[in-house]
Every structure is written in structure tokens, then in C-alpha cells.
Write a structure and sequence with these properties.
Length: 569
């Protein structure tokens, strides 16, 4: 048997062993990855509100206080549809807390081109140092403003939109817009009550000061579709110590019209001297017909499109690319996005079933809350990182009951992984089959190596005798024998290991089929079962040592003069 044949045998044996071990390890790891991908984190809790609230319930802080919870974050799941030149189809949007989610979510290196925390960091909107909203003074009880309704249609009222310390938005009704004269509108800081005809539309929530005033807006009355103008002056808060001016409206640079992505330029805010109180200027807010957003102005910098991570399928469906802007409908509100990064996969989202978008939750809630009179009511979840003894399900139910929500889904990664591991078709069956294949391959390799050693040693005894006769010491001859066999085996094992890896990368993706016939999500990532390969390598090393030892034993018993006489004849 030539030495090249022995090397080919070692390479074939090792490559088959590497492929078999990689297949077993990859299959087992894929089952675990599928479970963790579906869960998203150690524990994912889906819940729904029994009543509609002005802003979504966020229970991460409540769950984080439970024993065994190391970190918790809120996630909002929204079904959206894109508005693009390509008439894009629907998608799933996750609104997340970027910093917290990076510490909680399960991820894999091949999901994104950069680590998850760096990928999520681009979602946080840049801060230019300009304050968003006007902080209300301590102890403020009422809010007042001077207004001239100009040609606002009859029946319209004027409201202020504020946010409390818990991030809940609420409205204060300042009064009706009547006549064409300057009138002072003032109202206590009390949330607008729900309509009597539909008491479940909104729920009274306790407010937590301090408050921040974000926007002033008009509730349309009769003939609301017509263009109109409203003039404002001297916004103030009433405290026990007296009035405190919040803004004089002599300069409108800090105020911005609440933009409507569907109708750019529909609203405008300018400074006016034509309609003003004596010796002062006023802020003239004008709007045209139509539009989806509320007619109002907000305090702070112009709101920019929300940075977004998207799936490759989202780019394809909407014919856009990184750096482009696209608008999506979240509920009844059109939200502009700027695509800043593409991610292939994101926990709980299957890009093969639906394109997905990931945005910053605070930015999304602020954007929608400043533009819509409807309640922000999207699907809420809490993702938890668990340590220690784990999470008690009864504690989760208790927190949900205290917060007046219903748990609609509970995903625990460890239990889901264990359930998949108990499937005999995925675990025991493949393990037994691969164990038998390992034994057959290793025994065949060992047999071939010993057979080659025996035949080769019988054929080369005369060569070894000649080496001794020309002056080679026994150690030199032993080194030649051991080195030639060791190099052949080592090269065969090295080429076989590389070939097995290459073969695994080529074949295993063809096996990414779930029990329902669809491709698995996330895709399989090649794993090596180094324990099994180590056993195979160890057996081959032992057989090689035995073969070398046998050769050396034969050399030690070699009768030099006998082989030399045979050569003369």
C-alpha cells in the first residue's frame, strides 16, 4: 500500500468523522438556537391592557424587582405597513430600549455585522442640546395662554399636551376658541376626561409630577377642513406664588409646527405684528386643508425621521437602501424612518415570513403621542435576563394582576430548549446513529493503518538493513521510520479535518428544514463536536504509536548480515 494511499485513507476517515461530528453538534445547537430565538431573552412576557390608556403600560421596572431577575426591558411590537414608491407590503416593527435590550436579548454573531450593542446604539436619536418641552414649575396648578382665534372654524377648542414623570401623555383643555379678539384661556392641570359615550376609550391614570409641556394644539370643530390661523401670546403657569411665564411667544424659533409626513408644508408658524396685543408680537400658527397629524405646535427642535434597523427583505420589498427615508403607518399615524443599518436577523423576528423594522421606543411613543389624539395602544412585552434560581411564574401573574394587565404569552428559554432536547427524533436517534458511525470509521482507520504498517515493514526490512550497513545508527533509522509514518498520518488528518469543515459548510445549509417543511430560523451555524473528534484523533494517535512501536521492535530484531546476504544473491 503506497504512502499516498495511506494519507488518502486518513484524510477520508478524518473528513467523514469531522462531518459527522459537525452535523450532530450543529443539529443540537440549532435546536437550542431556534428556541432562544423564539424566546428572544431568558424570559419574554407578552401582556395586554384591559382598558385603553393614553400611553402603553411599561412593566419592566415592576418585573425587575422580582427575585431572580437581573435585568428587564420593555419592548413594543407593532404591525406596520410601509408607504413607499414601490407600494411596500406590511412589516413587523419592534420598538425597543436600545441600551437595555443589548444587555437582555439573546443574539448570535452572524445576525449583524457588528455586535448587538453597537447595532442598537445607532437607534438613539442625536441630541443637539436643545430642550424638548418646557418644564412646569413646582406646584403649578393651572396653565394659561392668551389667544386670538382669528378665522378658526366655530366649535374648536384649544388644548395643551403634557407628559408626567412616568412618561404618560395627557391633555389639558384650555377652553373654546371664540371670536376674533384676544382672550385669556386658563384651566387647571387636570387630564381631559374620557367621552361619556365611550368610557372605556381612555382610563384615568394617576399623574406623577413634575410635568413637561410639549405641545399646544387645536381640537377641530365645525368646518374643520378649511384653512385657518391662530395667534398666541404669553404662555404661563399658575403657582401658589403667582404666575410664572413659560414663554412670551415674542420669538418662535423654539417652537415648531407639528409636521405631517404625508403633507409637507401644510402647517406654518411665524411671528406677527399685524395681529398682536399692544406693544407686543404674536405667534401666528396657520394650517391648510387636510392632513393626518393634529394641528398644533411643539416646543423643541424639529423632529427628524426615526433611525431604524431593517431586514434585507424590507429593503427589497420597498426598493430602498441604507440612508434612504421611508414612512410607515403605525396604527393611524404615519411615521418617517431613516434606514441606518441592515440586520439579517433579530430575536423573535422571522424575515422570511415578514420584513421587520427596529426603532427606539421612546422616540416612537413621543412622535405618535404628539401627533395623534388616539391612545397609543400597541402590543407590549417585557424581556428579562434571569440569574440564580430562575423566575417564579406566580410572581409574574401577581405583578400582572396588580398592574391591571393580562399575560397573553410567557416564553421561558430554558424550558423551550429542554423541550426540544427531549424530542427523540432530534436527540437520541441522531446521537446513536452518529456514535455507531464514529466507531465504524475509527475502527476502519485503525485497521488500515495497522495493515499498512505490517505490509510496509515486511517490504522495507532490506532497506533498513542497508541503511545500517552504510553507517546509520539505530536511532537514525528509528527516526526515519517514525517520522515518515507520523508525517503521513498528520498530513492526512489535517487535510481530512479541513475537508470535513468545507464539506459541512456546503452540506449542512441544505438540511435547514424544520418539522413544518420551512427553513429554520435562525439558520444553522456550523458547530464542531470537538469531544468526539478528540476521541477519534486520540485513537488514531494510539494506533500510530502502536504501528511505530511495532516497526521499532522489528528493527531491533533485524539480523543485518542475513538481509545483506539476501541482497547479494
Amino acid at each position: 500500500m503506497p504512502w499516498g494511499s495511506l494519507m488518502v485513507l486518513m484524510a477520508l476517515t478524518t473528513s467523514l468523522g469531522a462531518l459527522a461530528s459537525a452535523f450532530s453538534a450543529t443539529l443540537e445547537k440549532s435546536q437550542e438556537d431556534q428556541a432562544r430565538y423564539q424566546a428572544g431573552a431568558d424570559v419574554r412576557i407578552q401582556y395586554s391592557q384591559d382598558t385603553r390608556a393614553s400611553t402603553p403600560y411599561r412593566l419592566a421596572s415592576s418585573f425587575q424587582s422580582l427575585p431572580g431577575v437581573a435585568k428587564a426591558t420593555d419592548v413594543m411590537r407593532v404591525d406596520v405597513s410601509a408607504s413607499s414608491a414601490a407600494f411596500g407590503r406590511g412589516a413587523t416593527m419592534l420598538a425597543v430600549e436600545p441600551g437595555a435590550l443589548a444587555q437582555v436579548a439573546w443574539s448570535r454573531r452572524d445576525f449583524t455585522s457588528v455586535p448587538l450593542d453597537r447595532a442598537l446604539s445607532v437607534l438613539e436619536p442625536p441630541k443637539d442640546g436643545t430642550a424638548e418641552g418646557i418644564p412646569m414649575p413646582d406646584g403649578a396648578t393651572s396653565l394659561g395662554v392668551w389667544a386670538n382665534s382669528g378665522n378658526v372654524p366655530p366649535g374648536a377648542s384649544f388644548r395643551a399636551r403634557l407628559k408626567d414623570a412616568n412618561g404618560r401623555y395627557f391633555d389639558v383643555n384650555l377652553g373654546l376658541l371664540l371670536g376674533k379678539e384676544w382672550r385669556y384661556l386658563e384651566a387647571p392641570i387636570t387630564p381631559v376626561s374620557a367621552p361619556a359615550a365611550n368610557p372605556q376609550r381612555d382610563v384615568a391614570l394617576p399623574l406623577a409630577p413634575p410635568y413637561i409641556l410639549h405641545a399646544l394644539w387645536v381640537v377641530p370643530g365645525r368646518g374643520s377642513g378649511a384653512p385657518a390661523a391662530l395667534f398666541l401670546d404669553q404662555l404661563q403657569a399658575i403657582t401658589p406664588q403667582g404666575p410664572v411665564e413659560l414663554d412670551s411667544f415674542q420669538d418662535t424659533q423654539r417652537w415648531q409646527p407639528i409636521a405631517d409626513p404625508a403633507s409637507a408644508g401644510l402647517y406654518a408658524l411665524t411671528s406677527s405684528q399685524a395681529v398682536a396685543r399692544p406693544g407686543r408680537r404674536s405667534a401666528a400658527f396657520t394650517w391648510g386643508a387636510g392632513g393626518l397629524a393634529i394641528r398644533g405646535i411643539n416646543y423643541g427642535p424639529p423632529q427628524m425621521p426615526l433611525p431604524a434597523l431593517v431586514s434585507p427583505s424590507f429593503l427589497e420589498a420597498n426598493r430602498v437602501q441604507v440612508g434612504d427615508q421611508v414612512s410607515i403607518y403605525a396604527g393611524n399615524q404615519l411615521v418617517p424612518l431613516k434606514i441606518v443599518r441592515v440586520v439579517d436577523f433579530f430575536p423573535t423576528l422571522d424575515p422570511r415570513k415578514s420584513p421587520f423594522v427596529v426603532v427606539d421606543m421612546a422616540s416612537l411613543v413621543d412622535y405618535v403621542s404628539l401627533r395623534s389624539t388616539a391612545a397609543v395602544f400597541f402590543g407590549m412585552e417585557s424581556w428579562l435576563r434571569i440569574e440564580g434560581t430562575g423566575l417564579n411564574v406566580q410572581d409574574v401573574e401577581r405583578v400582572a394582576k396588580e398592574q391591571n394587565v393580562r399575560v397573553t404569552g410567557l416564553f421561558q428559554a430554558q424550558q423551550m430548549v429542554a423541550q426540544r432536547a427531549r424530542d427523540p427524533l432530534l436527540a437520541a436517534g441522531w446521537s446513536g446513529l452518529l456514535t455507531i458511525s464514529f466507531m465504524v470509521v475509527v475502527v476502519a482507520s485503525a485497521s488500515g493503518l495497522l495493515l499498512h504498517t505490517y505490509i510496509d515493514s515486511r517490504q522495507r526490512l532490506a532497506e533498513f538493513a542497508i541503511l545500517r550497513s552504510v553507517g546509520f545508527l539505530p536511532g537514525h533509522v528509528y527516526g526515519v521510520i517514525g517520522a515518515s509514518l507520523a508525517v503521513t498520518v498528520a498530513l492526512g488528518v489535517a487535510f481530512g479535518s479541513w475537508g470535513g469543515q468545507w464539506l459541512g459548510r456546503a452540506i449542512i445549509p441544505l438540511l435547514e428544514v424544520a418539522e413544518n417543511g420551512a427553513r429554520v430560523t435562525p439558520p444553522m451555524a456550523l458547530e464542531n463536536y470537538w469531544g468526539a473528534l478528540g476521541i477519534a484523533y486520540a485513537v488514531l494517535a494510539v494506533v500510530t504509536l502502536v504501528a511505530v512501536g511495532a516497526l521499532l521492535w522489528l528493527m531491533g530484531r533485524m539480523e543485518l548480515h542475513r538481509f545483506l546476504r539476501m541482497g547479494d544473491v
